[in-house]
Write a structure and sequence with these properties.
The protein is elongated, with a radius of gyration of 26 Å. By secondary structure, it is an alpha+beta fold. The strands form 3 sheets. The chain has a 5-stranded antiparallel β-sheet with strand order 2-1-5-4-3, with helices on both faces. It has a 5-stranded mixed β-sheet with strand order 7-9-10-12-11. A two-stranded antiparallel sheet has the order 6-8. The chain folds into 3 domains: 150 residues, PAS domain (Beta-Lactamase, 2-Layer Sandwich), CATH 3.30.450; 73 residues; 143 residues, Histidine kinase-like ATPase, C-terminal domain (Heat Shock Protein 90, 2-Layer Sandwich), CATH 3.30.565.
């Protein structure tokens, strides 16, 4: 899977160090270096004592979409991997979060010989408005070529493996929890059905909600997996705004009731027909509703609104909680909660809309899903 990092054309211009260029020219003429670096079937780079790239394998160039090695000679690893916390010539030490990063360890080790083996690296990068969390493992060894010391660094992209593990863990935990709850409720229902009709109705509602959540979880993870693998197909269908809202309320009301949270229709709510992919849109809104419910406390309310704004339709999900300032920059970050990230992925990549939010003290937090309005009836 090709890594979607920054290409050389998007990197800020930095004049290559003459020593790095000189080292590259020497290595290019050295058969041993060519054999070692060009022949390996992995992402390998060679960096000098100034921590600048002087040579790389072809697989590294292809994976990070660099056209030729000459474009990146003299660059540091942070720039090559697209880290948004990277600053030229700062040795990656300006941000506390960098302290546990393998690149930081590599750059700041004062020993002459540095050996790393599968050291984890988390790179936060930005691509087309998305904050992506990429996971790598670094292995490094010090070697000497042409009377110069270098670090031979092997880079392994483990993002897909770790994301799959996270998805599997969350999915099976939720499935297991729901199945366990359903089993207990059916046991109670079987014992009390003939004794207490009110209790029977309550249990029936709870069991129904459990089944709905299982279906939601399955649909969401399938949709998210297809979106990440770029195999998600968009199938537009005719939808009615009020009918769509009623479905959300019906499916979500029981879990709100259990927490003592109100689910309400906003004052701005238009009744009209529109065309979109119902499955993708439903999953995006449910993800935001789940986030709103987790952030809400008893007796608070979640408000769903839908309105037409010029050539767009706008869904909004409002709750009374506030997002702290230090968290706002991470709201749409991959790996920091699948709800907001997945909604942005579904809406912006597949339904050609936009997702944004406001969070103001005293007013609460509102997430907006804005979609182009096609073929209004």
């Amino acid at each position: 899977m090709k890594n979607q990092s920054r290409t050389s054309s998007r990197l800020p211009f930095v004049k290559s160090n003459e020593q790095a260029v000189e080292a590259f020219e020497k290595l290019k003429k050295n058969r041993l270096a060519q054999a070692v670096l060009k022949g390996v079937n992995s992402m390998v780079i060679l960096i000098n004592e100034a921590k600048e790239l002087v040579f790389t394998s072809d697989l590294f160039l292809r994976n990070f979409q660099f056209e030729q090695i000459e474009d990146i000679i003299g660059r540091e690893i942070g720039a090559l991997l697209g880290c948004i916390q990277y600053k030229p010539r700062t040795e990656c030490d300006w941000e506390k979060a960098c302290g546990s990063c393998g690149v930081f360890i590599l750059f700041n080790n004062k020993k002459d010989a540095v050996t790393l083996e599968n050291t984890p690296v988390t790179i936060i990068s930005e691509l087309e408005g998305f904050i992506l969390e990429k996971k790598y493992e670094l292995s490094a060894v010090t070697l000497e070529l042409i009377n110069q010391k270098y670090q031979l660094v092997t880079i392994s992209d483990v993002s897909s493996v770790l994301l799959k593990e996270q998805l599997d863990k969350e999915y099976f935990e939720r499935m297991g929890s729901q199945i366990s709850m359903l089993q207990k409720q059916f046991e109670v229902l079987n014992k009390t059905a003939l004794e207490d009709s009110d209790n029977e109705i309550e249990l029936y509602a709870s069991v129904t909600d459990g089944i709905i959540q299982l279906k939601e979880s399955t649909s969401f993870h399938q949709c998210f997996s297809e979106a990440k693998n770029k195999t998600l197909l968009v199938m537009h269908e005719k939808l009615q705004s009020v009918v769509f809202y009623d479905r959300l309320v019906k499916d979500f009301s029981e879990r709100c009731t259990k927490k003592g949270v109100r689910l309400e229709k906003g004052l701005e709510f238009d009744d009209f027909t529109f065309y979109s992919d119902g499955r993708i849109l439903y999953n995006a809104l449910v993800a935001l509703l789940e986030n709103a419910l987790r952030a809400s406390t008893e007796k608070e309310g979640i408000v769903i609104s839908l309105s037409k704004l010029k050539e767009n339709l706008v869904f909004s999900v409002h709750n009374q909680a506030i997002i702290p300032d230090h968290v706002k920059s991470q709201v749409f970050r991959e790996g920091k909660g699948l709800g907001t990230y997945s909604s942005k992925l579904f809406i912006e990549k597949y339904l050609k809309g936009t997702v944004y939010f406001t969070s103001v003290e005293g007013l609460g937090t509102t997430f907006y899903l804005e979609l182009p309005l096609f073929m209004i009836c």
